[in-house]
Amino acid sequence: MTGKIHSIETFGTVDGPGIRYVVFLKGCPMRCLYCHNPDTWSQEGAEEKTAEEILEDYKRYEPFLKRGGLTVTGGEPLVQIDFVTELFEKAKKRNIHTCLDTSGVTFRKEDKAKFDRLMDSCDLVMLDIKHINDEEHIKLTGHSNKNILEFLEYLNDNGTPVWIRHVVVPGITQHKEYLYELGKFIGRFNCVKAVDVLAYHDMGKSKYKEMGLEYPLADTKPLSKEEAVEAKKTIFKGIRSALMGS
Fold it and tell me: CA-to-CA distance for 90 and 173, rounded, in angstroms?
């Protein structure tokens, strides 16, 4: 089996614990308005690699990755769930820490057996919740968030450690009501070990221009560090409320 690869980063520092070997897969069903990697949407032009080829390359950098490991991201890596499962299973045989960076958009309860097998060899899930409000999530990504939130419930039942990621976008997710609601939701789950609040940036504009695409948020200014701090405070206020049962 081969995976459709967009690129590989050999010194990732924001893709899980420690220094990571990061595999970016091609293919994503969502069209997030702030996506800065539109070149990962389609699987056209992908380089194909086997799990063995990736792990052999991993060995070259292993001395730097001792306290890190392997992260698979995208695009949306769960589009290629069979390949990710094979890669993670082979990685675990080599005692490599495995991390899945996903939006969870492809999760379906009827596919539970496939997800069970993947989670058996997955040490950590970094789950990107785009928007807590379903109607707004559809506007932002073109998809409902219902199965994404169900995925978090599944991960909690499965005992899989989760880091939540949330991008705060002016005029879209930068609302106290939504941020607080997000905090109250994720505060219910014991599996959530960290929450990473990311400030919206527009560094993807150049890629859109190169690809002949119109950048959807051309008039949206990047979020300041101070605004990101305030957003995180609101989310954690919601988490505390959930923990207190209020």
Answer: 38
Beta pairing class for 98-102 and 162-168: unpaired
Token couple for 20 = 């990571």
Give the pLDDT confidence of 20-69 residue by residue, as tens digits. 999 999 999 999 999 999 999 999 999 999 999 999 999 999 999 989 99
Q: Which two tokens stand for residue 224?
A: 């300041």
Q: Is the bond into 75 cis (omega within 30 degrees of 0)? A: yes
Cα–Cα dist 88/117, whole Å: 10
Largest CA distance in the chain: 51
Query: Where is 12: in which H helix or E strand?
Result: strand 2-12
Mean pLDDT, to the nearest integer, of 142-171?
98
Burial (CB count within 10 angstroms: exposed 0-12, middle 13-18, buried 19+), residue 71: buried
Question: How long, in residues, is the chain?
Answer: 246
